[in-house]
Amino acid sequence: MRIGELAQRSGIGVETVRFYEREGLLPEPARGANGYRRYTADSSDRLVFIVRAKRLGFTLAEIRELLTLQDGQGSRAQVMALAEHKLGEIDARLADLQRMRETLGDLAQRCAGHGDIRSCPIISALAGAGEEPPEPRVTENESGT
Fold it and tell me: Distances from the Cα of 98 to the Cαs of 5, 7, 76, 93, 106, in angstroms?
């Protein structure tokens, strides 16, 4: 199949397919006599794997590792370790989001929604004149690693 069909089957754009090729996640396919890339069902299966892993929050580096494991170069214990690590990151992000929600909710309750902007507790907190909003931790996923 050609790249457009592969992208459509996978629910992603053509440029995303090319990006995954450049990143080494999807092997570059053979080209036909006309120069067009010719993808196989294996390429489609691998791309579905990548897309699903991405939706679960795995980084490109983690997906690369999962693909290596899928290709038979590892163990279930390694897959489980990756999954547990990802769950820990998700739990940490959820805790950060909950703290942010609580703080913003408290600030929103204290704001009447009318009157002079200079006395707005939300603006004051953001400007550093009141309770400081919680600072979320940067996870590996957000830092691009």
Answer: 41, 36, 32, 9, 12
pLDDT digits (tens, 9 = 90+) for 118-136: 888 898 888 886 555 556 5
Find all residues with CB under 8 Å of 104, minimum gap 6, and list them.
Answer: 122, 133
Please say whether the beta carbons of 110 and 101 come within 8 A. Answer: no
Helix, strand and coil in the chain, % to nearest 5? 65, 5, 35
Q: What are phi and psi of 31, to 5 degrees?
A: -110, 145
pTM over 0.85: no
Report yes or no: 2 and 14 within 8 Å, Cβ to Cβ. no
Nearest to 64 by CA among 49, 76, 77, 75: 49
Structural contact between residues 111 and 122, judged by C-beta atoms closer than 8 angstroms: yes
Judge whether residue 117 has pLDDT over 60.
yes
Distance CA 145, CA 97 (A): 21
pLDDT of residue 59 exceeding 60: yes
- Between CA 134 and CA 130 the distance in angstroms is 12
